[in-house]
Amino acid sequence: MTVRTPAREQSPPSFLRLAADPLRWRLLSELARSDRRVRELCGLLEQRQSLISYHLGQLRAEGLVASRRSAADGRDSYYVLDLARCRELLASSGTTLHPALRLADSPPREWSRASRSSQPRVLFLCTGNSARSQIAEALVQELTRGAVDASSAGSHPKPLHPNAVRVMRERGVDLGGRRSKHLDEFADKRFDYVISLCDRVREVCPEFHGHPDLIHWSIPDPAREGSTDEETYPAFQRTASELATRIPFLLEVIAHTTSTQEVT
Hints:
3-stranded antiparallel β-sheet, alpha/beta, Arc Repressor Mutant, subunit A, 9 helices, 2 domains, Rossmann fold, 44% helix, 4-stranded parallel β-sheet
């Protein structure tokens, strides 16, 4: 007679314990969509600040979220969800239960150019349109081969920063010849997504036609992290890396939403 060896006792992975709490799951869901301030989360979830702060602290301890001081109001902070970390912990949680539940790496999405009328349109905004939004625009264009119509603008445009050109050239993307644009140039255009990359520009973002999905990514201005181009260059590298991490997650949302709309 064969005696089955019982599974060894073990606690569920910490990620599953954290995510299983209904309020923390709602926090994760909100932050997966957009960076948020505590008071915004309190309003969206209709909970008192002390409770929201407690659960954010639990998520921070696991490395799932981080806070960044607002560039618009230094007394305030934005909370940022690390989606790559979530994916990593979700994958390891599955293998804890069974090796066959390992998440397989997905091949790069194949984008095909849609007709102009059905092409998803994205606008990236920052203050100067000299680095962050230009990098984001170029990355979307490169990753989707133009299948997603990406644009960028600023509330107070400045010339394209040489470090933005340099950091993207190292990634095989040429920003040379691009110009900075004022957001007023796009006031009459329709977008599916408007993404602010700067805390300051979020405060002055106008209303756009068609009620686009408004998303905020609280990304510091790399040009402010030093007094010379050489001093600021590491900050530009970090900015490009963060955008290169965030944008594929955004593109998956766009692809999912587009396919759902086509079915319906």
